[in-house]
Amino acid sequence: MHGPASSGWLLVALCAATGAYCLLRMRSSVEEQRRAAGGEALMGFGMAAMAVPAAAFTPPSWAWSAYAVVFGAAGLHALWAARTDVRHLHHLVGAGAMVYMAVVMATSPGHGHGGSGVPLLTGILLLYFTVYVLATGARLVPVPAAAGTGGSARWGDRPELARACRLCMGVAMVAMLPAM
I want to staple 1 with a disulfide (CB 3.0 to 4.6 A). Which of 40, 105, 121, 179 is the partner? Predict the structure, then answer.
């Protein structure tokens, strides 16, 4: 991504930390948590790699094609998983956004949109992820705990932390899309 180096490194740290927590979630005792966490870890680490400032490291030209293939495969997996659970459609949109960013970075001579204004697909993705971030953030607002519920869930089984990770990746996507 092309923008100020400090914001790029902050995105790298945020996405890498999110990916690391998603790896921790893969140890969950809940099968659906484990399944979703793998794709989210891939997304977090992929976003971290894409967010490295160009001044620090310029990936080889073939890397963008590799990103497109990896996230295209992740998108197909999300599409397959969406047959039984529509929540995987968000993973499909995220993987599609990653493919889109990789293709734009691979095909643009200056690695970016270059033209004036924001392309239509970028605008649609920005709108989707902005709405997603606002909706997810609203669900994180604390509510009083019901009587008799304990907070002894393992780190990998805490749904509010999983939502917070998804929120972080959504925020990172909102930051990365216009920076292409």
Answer: 179
Report angle CA 78, 160, 132 to the nearest 5 degrees.
50
Rg (CA), the chain: 17
- Return d(Cα 91, Cα 76) in angstroms, integer: 10
* Mean pLDDT of the 60-83 span: 93
Q: Encoding tokens for residue 7? A: 């914001």
φ, ψ (nearest 5 deg) of residue 177: -60, -50
Long-range contact set of residues 142-146: C-beta below 8 Å, sequence gap at least 24: none
Considering the entire predicted model, what is its pTM?
Answer: 0.84
74-124, pLDDT tens digit by residue? 999 999 988 988 888 999 999 999 999 999 988 875 555 555 557 999 999
40 in Cβ contact with 165 (< 8 Å) = yes
**CB atoms inside a 10 Å sphere around CB 90:** 18
